[in-house]
Amino acid sequence: MKDINKLLEKYWEGETTLDEEKYLKEHFASNKSSDNKSQAIFNYFREEKRISYHGKFKSPKNNIFKINFTREFAIAASIVILLGLAFLMRNYVKDTPKSHLVKYEVKDPQKAKEITKNALALLARNYNKGETTLSENIKNINKINIINTLIKNN
């Protein structure tokens, strides 16, 4: 039994010879050993060795240079399209005259004052909406931070 234990130690370290491994396989195949784990492992190896496959395997040599051109073509086409759009946009912006800018001139001071009030009121409304949303988000973040500190403390 001591001989088997020494051989098992050598086996698990990967230091056994082929004859020693053959001896271990035969030992566990014929005897009921007190080492049930090793017995089970060697029985498993023996059973797995019996499994066979009678189908045909595809030769890996045929698949070595097989490339999926669909994906590479899609990537290349996307890059070409993006570069083309960037080129067109650069030329469009460079060549566009500034005449499309609207110049609105008001001669009546009362009307100018009214337009300015409306513009500032719109700006204030939108600013208040953004400030309210921001303050609500900050409150939610603070709640999360409080919860995280409670979780860490427990």
Features of the shown structure:
154 residues, 3 domains, 0% strand, mainly alpha
How can the largest sheet be summarized? none
As a percent range, the share of strand residues is under 5%
Averaging pLDDT over every residue, what do you get? 79
* Secondary structural class: mainly alpha
Low-confidence stretches: none
Gross morphology: elongated
Task: Please indicate the count of domains.
Answer: 3
Helix count, per DSSP? 5
How helical, in percent, are the residues? over 70%
N→C terminal distance: 53 Å
Counting DSSP E segments of at least 2 residues, the number of strands comes to 0
Order of helices and strands: HHHHH
Radius of gyration equals 40 Å
In short:
The protein is mostly helical and 154 residues long. It contains five helices and no strands.
Layout of helices and strands, plus pairs?
Blueprint: H1 2-13, H2 18-30, H3 36-50, H4 69-95, H5 109-153
Helix pairs in contact: 2-3
Description:
The chain is 73% helix and 0% strand. The chain is an all-alpha fold and 154 residues long. Helix 2 crosses helix 3. The longest helix has 45 residues. It starts with a helix and ends with a helix. The model has no long low-confidence stretch (mean pLDDT 79).
